[in-house]
Task: inverse folding
């Protein structure tokens, strides 16, 4: 019940295209859903995060869509660029524990 | 965003020796820090939660006597890998949360440990 399932495992997108990564969870106590970007040999960096009281959040080219009833959330990267090539992790946590449970990761490659 | 600094960035040690990794919050105070382990092309696995002034809480399956965690101040937590073995070789990452309860967790740049 603590798992966060992430798909796809890898994604290849052409420059200018839309990258979509999906995550699903079981624990209804989760109330914070961040997405992290990680480059090789570096720590993860927060991209964007959402709470369950909204269904969508947009920051620049990054959008989170959240479906509370389906217990799913997704990251959309618009106008994908080669510099976006990295591994993306979704995560979830619940108030009180502060522990982030990470998805399995998606390796995104954006080709020019 | 706030800065979390990890040191060293990489370390090579001989089997049987101990290695200490430091995690510092540079511009905020962190009552709670987290230590993760990441194997190549895998996700981050939480090892333990480090609380300032108290004992760390370890996740199931993590040997507390092997991975010693100390959180002596609001800006510093250390992870010591004792009697390291080649299977302990991994990427170790810390994160910290602001004591004021800010939701965002800030991550260090990670430490690549290689045990030979």
Result:
């Amino acid at each position: 019940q603590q798992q966060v399932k992430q798909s796809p495992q890898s994604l290849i997108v052409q420059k200018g295209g839309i990258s979509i990564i999906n995550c699903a969870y079981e624990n209804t106590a989760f109330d914070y859903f961040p997405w992290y970007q990680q480059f090789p040999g570096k720590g993860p960096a927060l991209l964007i995060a959402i709470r369950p009281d909204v269904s969508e959040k947009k920051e620049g080219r990054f959008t989170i869509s959240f479906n509370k009833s389906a217990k799913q959330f997704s990251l959309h990267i618009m106008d994908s660029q080669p510099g976006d090539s990295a591994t993306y992790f979704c995560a979830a946590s619940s108030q009180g524990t502060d522990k982030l449970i990470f998805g399995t990761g998606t390796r995104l490659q954006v080709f020019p | 965003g706030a800065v979390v600094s990890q040191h060293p960035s990489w370390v090579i040690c001989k089997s049987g020796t101990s290695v200490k990794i430091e995690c510092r919050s540079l511009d905020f105070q962190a009552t709670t820090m987290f230590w993760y382990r990441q194997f190549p092309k895998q996700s981050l696995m939480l090892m333990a939660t480090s609380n300032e002034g108290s004992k760390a809480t370890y996740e199931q399956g993590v040997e507390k006597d092997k991975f010693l965690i100390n959180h002596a101040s609001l800006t510093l937590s250390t992870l010591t890998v004792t009697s390291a073995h080649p299977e302990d070789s991994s990427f170790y990452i810390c994160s910290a949360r602001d004591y004021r309860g800010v939701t965002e967790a800030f991550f260090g740049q990670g430490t690549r440990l290689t045990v030979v």
